[in-house]
What does this fold into?
Amino acid sequence: MGILKQFSPDHDFALKLDAEDQLSAIRSSFYFPEKNTIYLDGNSLGRLPNKTRDLIKNVVEFEWGTQLIRSWNEGWYELSEKISSKIARLIGADANEIATGDSTSLNLYKLAIAAVNLNAGKTRIVSDELNFPTDLYVLQGIASQMGSDYEVVLAKSSDGQTVPMEELERVVDENTAVVVLSSVAFKSAFMYDMRTVTEFVHSKGALIIWDLSHAAGAVNLNLHDAGTDMAIGCTYKYMNGGPGSPAYLYVAEHLHDKLISPVWGWFGEENPFAFNLKYTAAAGIRRFSIGTPPVLSLSAIEPGLIYCLKQGCSI
Ligand SMILES: Cc1ncc(COP(=O)(O)O)c(C=O)c1O
It folds into this structure.
């Protein structure tokens, strides 16, 4: 409020804000070859941390180039869990509730279909008009695969910026299986009160999946405090993981054994290196993993994530 009152659209005022910026010290930790570019697209692709350049060189030349397949036993196999435990700290979850791998879209598919099957008999899937299109497409695809009884219903935004609680109360009913919302809307930066919405969704007997792509690393999150069932999010925005870096998914521990992933792969199997002919789901969060993790881009997530954890979030 203070800053808005004094706001002035001139160069001196911009310099004054720069001087007061608590994050300015970490500018030099990022790769800035073009001195005069002002980059405002970290909400789409975060900048490259200097540490990531060095780390990727080491992963390529030493871990892959020199150690070759030995690297699977020297860290690659546990890499996903290592990254997941740091993401857990950032979003207020436990390490055993996060799996990192696949894209946000695929992670949503896995969790939303598992939620719909857990709430068998309920045929409504709810989202809102501010949600990112891939989420809506994934949900539409699920509804069409489940059968003609299923429908995707969107809470409306009359101003294109916000979705009032009354609108969610209008569309989420006792027939709702799952609600999928972005905690921060990509279109307007509108933020839901996650705890209030989650409590309301639970009161109707539905499950909730929060998309944290525009929130994690930018605003304070605590999935446990909010009572969240499930969440998904990307790592290439405010976690600076790089183009196409793998996404994560969260499932509250009490739901692990109740949800069945629709995609069964060997990395989600109880004992992948037994090469069993018949699939048995791994206990816990690993049952939501599918196949071999993308080691290069998974490795690249860590330095940006460490900056997020060190800096904390101010909102
Ligand atoms: C809220 C939200 N969900 C999902 C995605 C994209 O998902 P994916 O990583 O599958 O491309 C984005 C991309 O910007 C997004 O903003």
Q: What stands out?
A: The beta strands are 98-100, 124-128, 151-155, 176-182, 207-211, 230-233, 248-251.
